[in-house]
Amino acid sequence: MLIRLVALAALFGFLFGFDEGVIAGALPFITKLFGITAAGEGMVTSAVPLGAVAGAILAAIWADALGRRMVLIICSLLFGIGALASGLASGEVVLVVARLMLGIAIGASALAAPMFLAELAPARQRGAVVSAFQLMITIGILVSYLIDMMLEPLGAWRWMLALGAVPAIVTLGGIWFAPESPRWLVMRGRNEEAETVIAAVQPELGREAAAEIVRDIAASQASAPKSADWSQFLSERMRPIASFAIIAFLLQQVSGINAVIYYAPTILGHAGFDGASTQLAATVGIGIVNVLMTVVAMFIVDRLGRRPLFIIGFLGAAASLAVIALTMNSGNPEMAPVALVGLFVYIAFFAVSLGPLPWIYMSELFPLSMRSRGMAMASVANWGCNFLVVFLFPVVVAAAGAAVTFAIFCGFCVLGAIYAWARAPETKGASLEDLEKRGLAVTA
Predict the structure, then answer these.
(1) What is the number of other CB atoms lying within 10 angstroms of the CB of residue 217?
(2) Three-state SS for 352?
(3) Are 317 and 413 in contact (CB under 8 A)?
(4) Which Gene3D superfamilies does its entry note (predicted)?
(5) What's the CA gap between 303 and 428, in Å, rounded?
(6) Contact between residue 25 and residue 148 where contact means Cβ atoms under 8 Å apart
(7) Whole-angstrom Cα distance, residue 370 to residue 367?
(8) Of 82, 154, 204, 222, whose CB count within 10 A is highest?
(9) Interatomic CA distance for residues 333 and 66, integer angstroms
């Protein structure tokens, strides 16, 4: 059951990645057909992260009130409707509204799915299980790039966007019959149901061991504040955890990842690659590296640990972004392959570290009574910064050039490495209840 539930919840990562990445191939056709300006191009592209801000806020309310599973059911419906509406869009405004709907689904599921996975997974496998969500994001991006490449010669941008409805229907069917998170069941006093879910997910434990886990969850919940209001995030205990989770996501976004994901063909054009087909083929290469290195992350995140991996990721991303900026600044088309290798290396370091770790930290650090609100705070910061980066990227490139833009991303990664060295905690191998009992503090 654990494998089935991990695959199911991670499918939301696939939808996340598909609806983010597919616009890369469709955008040139949309821009030409609707006569969209640079700012309009930024708005169409960034409508997804903008909608995700609202989705994260709504999920913070729904995740505790309705349960993790019900939030994911609603997200499946929004994914399907948003994809179909995008493919049928008659103009720029309709397309922006449809992508805002997809953004709401992405923002809500990006909070609920990692929470669902973290609350189901055994402690020793939690990092790898939550990383499965990030893996499926990368697979969704890769599949969207492949579809873009196949449909580009036909100019079939509507099919590119509308095909996202297919996995949404599959996911809806699966989550409809899935059990609820055992920790949410305990929050609602449904301890026997929680025992049944834990025994099914970890059959090697036996019923008594499952009952003991439920008692630990209940005890942890009983000792938590009865009214977890927002002001508690300003407390001495919660302030460093909340600030770390938020800053980790901000640094993830200003590393430039979503500028690369949304605008990969455009970036490759600035690097010296001519022709839409060539740019999309190179973009598929980026997607393949993203998937492969995320698989590597799943194997090492519970072995190497969160903190060293976070530091290494920022350092590697900074070095590769510096290479990309210098190559673009040279203005030599013969250096285009060097820029592409730099992008591959950047994606590799991001996928193995900066991609999954903020999601893992977010699902681990907050105590149960404040988890949905804490994750919502971090998610809003993530999507708000995502929106700004994606919206401003074409504007900044037009004003200052691609080389300067990538140099800025490099500088933020250097700051990220310093911050990770100073503040990143280590959480591998500990149960969520153990982390809560010992009152985990972010290292000074």
Answers:
(1) 24
(2) helix
(3) yes
(4) MFS general substrate transporter like domains
(5) 8
(6) yes
(7) 6
(8) 82
(9) 55
Please count the helices (runs of H) and the strands (runs of E) in the chain.
20, 0
Q: Which two tokens stand for residue 142?
A: 């890769």
> Does the domain made of 2-178+224-437 have the CATH classification 3.40.50.10860?
no
Distance between start and end Cα atoms, the chain: 40
Look at residue 331 and give its three-state secondary structure. coil
* 3 state SS of 431: coil
Element (H or E) spanning 273, and its range?
none
Q: Which two tokens stand for residue 95?
A: 């397309």
* Cα–chain center distance at 367: 21
**Residue length of the chain:** 444
For residue 241, count other CB atoms closer than 10 A to its CB. Answer: 25
Amino acid identity at 301: V
Q: What is d(CA 164, CA 76) in angstroms, rounded to the nearest whole number?
A: 11
* Residue in the block written with tokens 């099919």: 159
Please answer whether residues 301 and 428 qualify as being in contact, where contact means their C-beta atoms are separated by less than 8 angstroms.
yes
- Cα separation, 212 vs 2, whole angstroms: 19
* φ, ψ at 163 (rounded to 5°): -65, -15
Instruction: Give me the residue label for tokens 């799943």.
Output: 298
Letter for the amino acid at 317?
A
State the Cα angle at 426 between 423 and 428, rounded to 5°: 160
- CA-based nearest residue to 145, from 341, 318, 36, 283: 283
Residue-range domain boundaries for the chain: 2-178+224-437
Q: Give CA–CA dist 51/19, Å, rounded.
A: 12
What's the CA gap between 121 and 337, in Å, rounded? 42
Phi, psi (5° rounding) for residue 122?
Answer: -60, 150
- Residue located via tokens 């969520």: 432
- Per-residue pLDDT in tens (0 to 9) along the chain, 444 residues: 667 777 777 788 899 889 988 988 888 888 888 888 777 878 888 888 889 889 988 887 888 788 888 999 999 999 999 999 999 998 889 999 999 999 999 999 888 887 787 777 776 666 667 677 778 888 998 899 899 989 988 989 999 999 999 999 999 988 888 888 888 888 888 888 888 888 877 777 777 788 887 888 787 666 555 545 677 777 777 888 889 989 999 999 999 988 887 777 777 777 777 766 676 777 788 889 988 998 888 788 878 888 999 999 999 999 999 999 998 888 777 788 888 889 899 999 998 999 889 878 877 788 767 777 787 788 888 888 988 888 888 888 888 888 899 999 999 999 999 999 998 888 776 666 666 665 544 443
